[in-house]
Every structure is written in structure tokens, then in C-alpha cells.
Amino acid sequence: MPRKSAAFLLYRLTGDGDLEVLIAHMGGPFWARKNERAWSIPKGEYTDEDPLTAARREFAEEVGEPVLTGEILELGEFRQSSGKVITTFAAEGDFDPAGFASNTFEMEWPKGSGRVQEFPEVDRIEWTGPNRAAELLVKGQVPIVERLRETLLARGVLPA
């Protein structure tokens, strides 16, 4: 049985009608000096929990605010190269990245030192367009943004 994650992709439309998505730069020493392919959609693993509930919880933990939205879009499941399956939801909303506060995790760093340090799970978030998101997100999450864009086009939310 593959590991399961749930994700919540917040999006907004600019004054010009362009799509922007909220993405998160992964925290910790491994990702500190990386930019491209070092970003993620707020997500996390779950087991016996409803995927939407897990996606909302993970968004709040990684961004520091609950998802306050209207209509929830189910974007589907996306298999990652690791075999993990991400069930993804999206909704329109807005969030000021200045108000962001991530939860933390502990790990031994430097590895083998015996010293345990605390790091933020996410060290920064930002709004970006789909093309830039495709360059920044880990490769397996790029289809999620593409699915959102297709969904919004099909609903007439984005201009064709």
C-alpha cells in the first residue's frame, strides 16, 4: 500500500485575471541553498483520516493559518516517483506571506554529530504564476498546478 499525503493548493486571480498559486519552500538544511525543485504545495502524510481534513490540517501547520475558503475543488490523486500518492484539493483565497508561520521538526544536524536541531518544516512561502511554479516545485507536483489550470479553464474562470 503506497504512503498517502493530502495537499491543499490555494490560488488567486490577479487584477489582470492571471492565475497565481501559493507554494512553500521546504525547510531544513538539505533544502536551504536550493531553489529550483525545492518548493512544494502544502501537504503531509495521513493514514486513517479523511483526505480533505488532512489537507486542511497540513495547510494550517505549514502556513500558520487555516484555509478559509468557499468552494473546494478536488484535483485528484497524483503518484510521485517515490510511489507516494498525493490527494489534492484547491480553493480560491488570499494570504499575506508576511503572516506565515510554519511548524517545526527536529533532526540530527550535522548528520552523525549527535546534535539535534530544530528546523521549520517550511521556511518561506510565495505567490507565483503556473509557469514559475513549474520550475520551482518538485517535479512530481507540477501536474497538480497543470490540473488546477485545466479545471479553471474548463469552468470559464480563466480566459481561454
From TrEMBL:
What sequence ranges are listed for the domain Nudix hydrolase? 1-150
Concerning InterPro entries, the annotation shows:
NUDIX_hydrolase-like_dom_sf, NUDIX_hydrolase_dom, Nudix_hydrolase_domain
The record's annotation in PROSITE patterns points to: NUDIX (PS51462)
Which parts form a coiled-coil structure per UniProt? none
* Superkingdom assignment: Bacteria
In Swiss-Prot or TrEMBL terms, this protein is called Phosphohydrolase
What is the species of this protein? Amycolatopsis deserti
- What lineage, starting at the top, does this entry show? Bacteria, Bacillati, Actinomycetota, Actinomycetes, Pseudonocardiales
